[in-house]
Amino acid sequence: MLPSPLTLRASGRLRPARPHGARRTVLGLGLAVVVFALGMAAVSLVVLDSVDLALLNVAGAACLGVLLMVPVLKTDYDVVEPISLVMLAVAVGVTLKPAYIAFGPPAAVDFLMLWRQEPAFLLNGAVLVLVGLAALSAGYLYALPAPRLWRTRLFGQDVWSRNRLLLIGLVAIGVAALSMVLYVDKLGITGVLQDVSRKRFYQVEGAEFERGALGYYRWGASVVGPVFLFALAWALTRRGRLGWTVVAVIAVLVAMAVVFPFFNSSRTKVLMILIEALVIWKCVRGRIPRWLVVSMGVGMLALLLVLTALRPKTGDLTDVSQVLGVDALLETTVGGRHFLDLSKTSHIVEGVPDRIGYQYGVSYVAWVFMPVPRTVWLDKPPLGAGPIIGREIFDMQRAGVPPGMIAEAYLNFGVLGVVLVPLLIGVGLRWVYETFRPVLSNAAGATVYAVVLIPVAWTTVTGGFSQMVVALFVALLPLAVIIVFVQVRKGRRPHAV
């Protein structure tokens, strides 16, 4: 049957697809932040009479705006794509930063962001961040041919052995418990409440960089995180009751996955576990219930406040905002050097090559030395440029400052690197997403995507390339072994679900 003339006329008119669902939500929230930044630009110009702060606010709005072009032009955009994390890092670390500089606590602004400089000092860095993010967006919009993961054994079958999964969970709990005991024994703990949650390092006497992270202990204590997410993905594919044994194992896994980052006051890792859990839920179930989003959002905020409040601090403890950690929470998010920080990036850019010479790719290959413990190799190079930047740029004798994507690119290759490196990262992130996209509804595909790509994308943009490579290997290799172990071949389904 031929279509009616009315249908023919309608089909011949091409209209752009209207945003819907998660895409519309992301665009709405992003535009709200952009409008807020532009409003702050007007306030800075009229009330504070500061052209520099106004320009910084406009630049911050433009940085988020170029990223929002991705969901505008990519009509099949999904909120679980890695570009969403980049938007979060930019919104907090770049777009909202000038407003905090203008109206935040003067002492915190001067010490953490301006470093005794004027706001105009940040303008060059803001321009480079805008150029780099525009290149990343352009690269992300370019799609390379993706391999067919659904044909591989790892993702080609979705029948898992319940007994093997429980065994993996119990082994992970045992390994994590032993690693935590050895870690605490190595460092010691005073028993004071504020000592329960704080940044911890091991002093390596005689080494150039004296602080060691005790990486193998940390890795052992952190294995419960990926295993919990793996068990969560399996549980979400089940339609029947899980049973008390499975529920108990999952509960212990999630508790231990949060306890160790809590002990080390690692707010980012706690947030990553919760975000990865939401990503898995979205991939496997197709949508996230509103009650879950609200409850996890409240839980994230409460946990961040507790972690921040337990950190050692000085000041007026009768101030409720200090006791609850509200001021400190703002200082370590919008006002800190985390996320894709505009202030940090600007200081690093201005310090190259006078205080730190061009690295010419050295920081991108530092991960090669990672397997050797610093307690064995005292002169082992640092993992990335963070320790060198902390010492040479920010006058920190022990702590490091991860450069972030834009600053690391400039540190290695100058302005050319600011264009090429983010462009390649954008192409790479899109390629990996398109590779996993056909298997995201698969429990194995959703788990590997959430556990590997989400933290890898975050570390690449906000931390450093070598840290990303280490995170990739630490997460991917054991997870692939677990998936192969728990899978049951077709035709053989004893104790399988």
Which helices and strands appear, and what pairs or packs with what?
Blueprint: H1 5-11, H2 21-46, H3 51-73, H4 82-95, H5 97-103, H6 106-114, H7 123-140, H8 153-156, H9 162-187, E1 202-203, E2 211-212, H10 215-222, H11 224-237, H12 244-263, H13 267-285, H14 290-310, H15 320-323, H16 326-332, H17 342-351, H18 386-392, H19 405-436, H20 443-462, H21 465-486
Antiparallel strand pairs: 1-2
Question: Can you offer a commentary on this structure?
Answer:
Strands 1-2 form a two-stranded antiparallel sheet. The protein has 21 helices and two strands. Helix 4 (about 80-95) packs parallel to helix 20 and helix 11 packs parallel to helix 13 (about 265-285). It is mostly helical and about 500 residues long. It is globular. The protein folds into two domains: about 20-140; about 150-330 and about 410-485, no CATH class.
Strand count: 2
> What is the element string, with H for helices and E for strands?
HHHHHHHHHEEHHHHHHHHHHHH
Any low-confidence stretches, pLDDT <50, length ≥5? 1-17, 200-212, 314-321
Question: Termini distance?
Answer: 46 Å
- What count of helical segments does DSSP give? 21
Q: What percentage of amino acids are in beta strands?
A: under 5%
Q: Which structural category do the helix and sheet elements fall into?
A: mainly alpha
Main sheet record? 2 strands, antiparallel
What's the average pLDDT? 79
Radius of gyration: 24 Å
Helix content: 55-70%
* Largest sheet: spatial strand order: 1-2
> Could you say how many structural domains there are in total?
2
Shape: globular
